[in-house]
Specification:
- The chain has 126 residues and is α+β, with helices and mostly antiparallel strands.
- It folds into 2 domains: 65 residues, ACT domain (Alpha-Beta Plaits, 2-Layer Sandwich); 53 residues, Alpha-Beta Plaits (2-Layer Sandwich).
- The protein is 26% helix and 27% strand.
- The protein is built from 5 helices and 8 strands.
- The strands form 3 sheets. A 4-stranded antiparallel β-sheet has the order 2-3-1-4. It has a two-stranded antiparallel ribbon with strand order 5-8.
- Strand 2 and strand 3 form a beta hairpin.
- Helix 2 packs across helix 3.
- The protein is elongated, with a radius of gyration of 16 Å.
- The relative contact order is 0.20.
- The structure holds iron/sulfur cluster (2 copies).
- One iron/sulfur cluster (SF4) binds next to helix 4.
Amino acid sequence: MLQLKFDPKAVKKPIISLATIETSTLLNIIRASVGPREGELVVEVEDGKAERVADILRSYGVDVHSMEEAVEKDEERCVHCGLCISICPVEAIGFSKERKVVIDTSRCIHCGSCVTVCPTKALKLP
Ligand code: SF4
Ligand code: SF4
């Protein structure tokens, strides 16, 4: 999983298509926020290709970071309302036997949906 941040120059280039063609790698866009002046994407890359894809993207002026860590929960802020459970597209969040909200970080795809809906700002992506 790679996080890509880019400036107005890179926004004008078809960076995902270029990286796909130049590395013969399919990129799966997990999260996207792109405007005329800046952009941020999270893309899933097939095993063993992330470094090559990152190098190509950096050559187009993209700021690239590897995202190995999943969403994090601040236990002191969480009120276990369950709102994040319903929004998670991969069922990475659920209730424990004790009715506490728990996250299976191995399933998290970094979409950011739970971070957006949490009323107490208990969740964050690294
Ligand atoms: S939405 Fe926030 S407060 Fe509610 S259960 Fe999820 S992490 Fe906790
Ligand atoms: S970031 Fe997305 S995939 Fe990960 S736990 Fe939150 S809603 Fe689920």
